[in-house]
Every structure is written in C-alpha cells, then in structure tokens.
Amino acid sequence: MKSILLALALLAAPLAAEARVVPAPVQDEAAGQATREVAVLAGGCFWGVQGVFEHVAGVKSAVSGYAGGQADTATYEQVSSGMTGHAESVRITYDPKAISYGRLLQIYFSVAHDPTELNRQGPDSGTQYRSTIFAADAEQARVAHRYIDQINRAHVFDRPLATTVEALHGFYPAEAYHQDFLTLHPHNPYIMINDLPKVDELQRLFPSAYRRAPVLAGTARP
Asked: pTM to 2 decimals?
C-alpha cells in the first residue's frame, strides 16, 4: 500500500509536467469484425492508469494487475520488491468499433503517464513502474513500435520515450483492494496529487473520448 506519509510529503513537491496531446498514430490497428479486444498497458502505479481508462468511452472494463512475470509471484507484496519481472499494469477491454487501439495508445502517451521516465513514475521507482506496452499479438506490437518511433521522430517530448514493447504472456489481476482505487478513494492524498489530475486532463484534452461515469472493474480477484 502506498504510504500516506509519502503522499503527504508530495504536497511540497513540484508539479508534474503539463499533459499534452500526442499526435494520433499514422498507422493504427486494422479494423475487423470483433466487438471486443484487449490492450495491456503499464505506466507507473496502476491506480491512476486504471482510473483514466475507466473514463474512456468505448472501454468495457479496465482491471489493475500484473504483467511481465510469472503467475506464482503475481502478488502486490512480491511485485513491490522489483525482483519478479512484473510491471503494475492495466488490462483494458474495449470495443474496437468505438475506439481504436491507436487511440488508446494516444491517451496513454498523452495523459495516463509520463512516457519519458525510465523505471519510475513520479514518487514511485523500480522496474515494476516501467512504461511498457504489452502487445497481445504481432499487429499490436507493430502499431506500438511504429508509434513510438513516430513520436520520437517528431520530438513531441524533450526526451526520447522510455516506453518498451513486450510480448504479453500473461496478465494477473491485482488484489481486490486495488481495483477502482481512484474512484473509491478520491480523497486519498496520493490519488489527489498524482492521479485525479490525469482524469481532468483526459476530459480537457480528449473531450470526445471522455465518459463522466467510470466503468468499474469491481472485484477482479477474491
């Protein structure tokens, strides 16, 4: 659990860089007949990433969890050691007829996290907080790699992206108390400082993609 003392200390910390709209990907995933697809994204503490995507129109569910490691070490206590290979991640189930994979990545790079930070986000450091796109298939990997290259070539950020692309070999839902944390604990100091501003930026920068009522994950793990 994030330390309340740490969160309170952040009140004196400098504000994060202002979010910006990253250009849409030139090459997106090809449209198909499916009405349900999955994207798995990691960008620091999963509370904020989940909170952002729960407010995105076209998203059917967003579940906090762990990707990049094995099932037997996919617990918060073990992942927090930084030794399991996992990253705190969010599994986003979405309707590709309502929102594309590339549009999800655009929101991910624009407001869900700072993709230039290596193995950290804000106050959280370690490989478990890395910026990673876990590609479910070759098409997602192709879109992700080309989009990262596009953003770097355009010098959208002052530094190159630290985001990596890894093959998705498994996703393990986090403990129930982590699910919907932003919505259930909006007055938590960590959420107020680090994550609620991301939802505000989503509404400001992507008004057509913003959904006021979040779609909640509920209990993803007993």
From this structure: 0.91
